[in-house]
Amino acid sequence: MTTLLRDFWYVALPGKQLKPGEMVHKKMLGEPILVGRRKDGEVFAMRDICPHRGIPLQYGWMDGDNVCCRYHGWKFSTHNGSCREIPSLTEHDDLDISRIRVPTYACREVQGNIWVYCAMDTDKETDLTTIPPVPAIPDFGRIEPGISEVIRFACNIDHAIIGLMDPAHGPHIHSSWWWRSGPQKFRIKEKQYEPVTQGFRLVPYDMPVSARPYKLLGDRVSIEIIFQLPGVRTEILRGDRYSACLLTTITPIDENECEAFQSIYWTIPWMGVFKPLLGFLTRQFLAQDRDAVIQQREGLSHNPSLMLIDDADTQAKWYFRLKQEYQRSKAENRLFKNPVEPRILRWRS
What we know:
The chain has 349 residues and is α+β, with helices and mostly antiparallel strands. It has 4 helices and 19 strands. The protein has helices at residues 157-165, 170-173, 275-300, 314-331, and strands spanning 8-14, 23-28, 31-37, 43-47, 61-63, 66-68, 75-77, 83-85, 104-105, 107-110, 113-118, 147-153, 188-196, 199-206, 221-228, 232-239, 243-252, 258-266, 343-348. Helix 1 (157-165) crosses helix 4 (314-331). The relative contact order is 0.15.
């Protein structure tokens, strides 16, 4: 059974990386996808293969609302993928070009990220009235991220997700001269979790008064962490003055690689002066996780038996149970039943 879940929205790239009139090739869930932005600013996505002779459309160009193939100039609508023109045809040809089309994908730009909906059957046109809304950070409106970083993980999406959600790896992987340096003092953590739609969340709690960086948000700061399938993690900090959010999403390239997208949002008006520093720290954190995955791959190449323990690995267990239930509900054509139950988790880190 494939480990890649369909009928979900996945991040293709940060919106700031795509200017009007530009197109970019992406491989998502093993499929070649062309993501572009029309001159009016709207985004689109279609299969990156010309149905004529198979050349990727990324090597062509945009002509108004059409993508033109560089091989023979065939034009395809960026709205529905239908063929608009075949330059080589003459009045003696009776080919109905309206029957020729490139499969398209639902594509939306929300809060600064471009999302593509990867349906179960990509050859059929997606009914936009039946698909769920694009994941969005609650209470942040149309805000765009102050920081957006992307890093490739040379591993299956499962290892990337359970590695990033792992609550016990921080002191060991994220140890630098500027963060958690020197001897570590481990403390027992005790957190309340509960189910949410196709996922689970850390019930909001007040941060310790000793956590000085959080005072930027006010005197009272709470934290809430939400994870939902297929791989969307939202960490929201709410203070009595300002709020901030760390959005992490994982998009599979194929069964063996994936991309991690991390966006940082804030409502602090003067925080922009720290963008270079925040960008550096974000890249360092992601790189530390990536390096651990590369080292882990050496061991996984021997197909060892693996284990998950309580309570530190309970979130990983929940993730696999959520995936299994989702796949079963699809196969049995029934409603999804969340297997997660409210629980207090305890671990040392």
